[in-house]
Every structure is written in C-alpha cells, then in structure tokens.
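Q: Got a minute? One more chain.
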Amino acid sequence: MASAFDTPRANPRAKPASRPEPRDPAPGAAQGTAGAAQGIAQTAGQGSGRSPGPAPGPIPGGRSVRLRGGFDVATLAGLAAAAAVIVIAITAGGSLRAFVDPPSLMIVLGGTLAVTTASFSLGDVAVAWKNAAAVLVHQRLDPKGVARQVLLLAEAARRAGPETLKNVLPELRAEPFLHRSVTLITEGLPPDVMEHMLTGEVEAAAGGHGKSAGVLRRASEVAPAMGLIGTLVGLVQMLGSLNDPSAIGPAMALALLTTFYGAVLGNVVLAPLAAKVERAAEDDALVKTLYTIGAVSIARQENPRRLEMLLNAVLPPGKRIQYFDREAPRVGA
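A: Always. Here it is, folded:
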C-alpha cells in the first residue's frame, strides 16, 4: 500500500515501500519532513475539492485542515433575519422612532449588565463578551481534516523519527495547541506526563468556555426581568401623573418599551449567543482532544493504524475516517 506521504513526483515504478525522491529538496531538510509537507498539502487540496498536486514548499500545518469558513453565517444570518422581521413589523404599522426610548434602554441594558456582573465578576463578564464576539467570526476546523493531519504527522514521525517534526514546527504556528503538542514530542517529554498536561489544558479551556456560556445564560434571564421592572416603573409614573395628560404618554412608553427591549435582548440576542458559545466550546474540545490523542500516540511511537482507531473512537459517526483503507492510497497516487 502506498504511503500517505508519497508525492506525485515519485517514480511510478518504484516499490510502494520505497521513499520518493523529490526533485528539488530544500537544503538541509530531511526527506521525511518533505514528504510530510507534501502529504499535508495534498490533504488540503482534497478537503477543498481540488485535485492534489505537488506543493511548492512547506505548507503551514493550520492550512492543511479545511476550514469551514470565517464568519459564522448561521449566527449572523439568524440575528439579522430576526432583527429584520422586528423592524418590518414596526415600520409596517407606525414609526420606528416611536420605539426608541433612552430611559427604557438604560434600564434594560444597564440593569442587565449590573445584575450579571453582580452574579459573576468583571473578569468573567469581560471574557464572556469577548467569547460571544469571537463565535461570530471564529474559524471552525473540520474534525475529519484534523484527524487526517494528525495521521500525516504520525506517518512522518514513524518514517523518520519524532525528531524530524522539529522541521515542521514553524509551519504549525497557525494552530497553537498543535504547535505546543508537537513541541513536547520533539523535546522528548514522557508520554504520560504529556497526556496529563494536554488533557489538563483541554479541561481548563472547556471550563472557561462553560463559564462564559453561563454568564450569557444569566444575562438572557435577567434582561426580561429588567424589562418587567421598567414596566412597573412606567406604570407607577403614569398613575402618579393622571392629572397631567402630557406626562401619561412618556410614562406609558417607558412601561411598554422596557418589556419589549428586555424580551428582544434576552431571547433574540443573548440566548442564541450563549448556545453558540457552548457549541463552539464543544467543537474546540473535540479538536484539542484529537490533537492530544495524536501527540501522545506519536510520543509512544505507536502504529498509525492504531492511532486511526483511537481517533475514530472520538470522532462523531459522520466524521470518522478510513485513512489507510481508502484515503492513503489516493494521497500517494
């Protein structure tokens, strides 16, 4: 069976087990590293739907995994569609200016932020808003592509030794967690110690994302409550101004608009963002778990076929790969 790192420039008459001879190898680079970079480039081409071709040089490790896109289209499209529906409903029956009331906004926005901060801390709230903004523009890695990348690195380490991965470290900076994992491999850290360190980092990151989602969940619960508080304030003002007809209108606007603002903020904005942060945390944990399994397996110098089984045990059923049975021959073809 042809190796996953055989390049298109290899002699087609060569035996499958022989290592291909690149035409113009980079000065001082090991053949195993060149094969790894070539195989990573070919996998990237397969993930994007393009036919694999010879790579002109080392390909960054992050680029070898097919990205699902920059902006999260589903979140942005959903929020934009909800806002459009509300605006159309408002303008169809009246003026949009009638739904703008600064005191109501102050009660809902200021009250929601204050109560949420009281429930957590300034640092937790700041990180939560940062993560909420990140999920709108973050890049999600395809777990199937991540598994392929891990197997390519495992093949390179098995053919030329784990030390050869030092030559591809600069190309892995696009994925900080993978870069740290491969660095630990090249430094000869014991596999058990490495597994403990990487697993702890995965759990810490998951806990941080979970706390951010909790902050947003709490804010989504507080916003409608602040709207109700604003409604009560407006009603009290209205009842206290029954002898002044000019004051009844502003008080009634405050009473109704705070409920409107609280419902929109809590159910249209904050609750979806909390759910998206939770989903992003799950995706991030899966990718880092795949990298951890791969790094520990490479450090233990296990057979890449066993690594494939370990990765498939973690991957969702629709994302499992058959690298050595189907994909590896095509990569080296």
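A: Residues 38 and 56 are 9 Å apart (CA to CA).
Q: Perfect, thanks.
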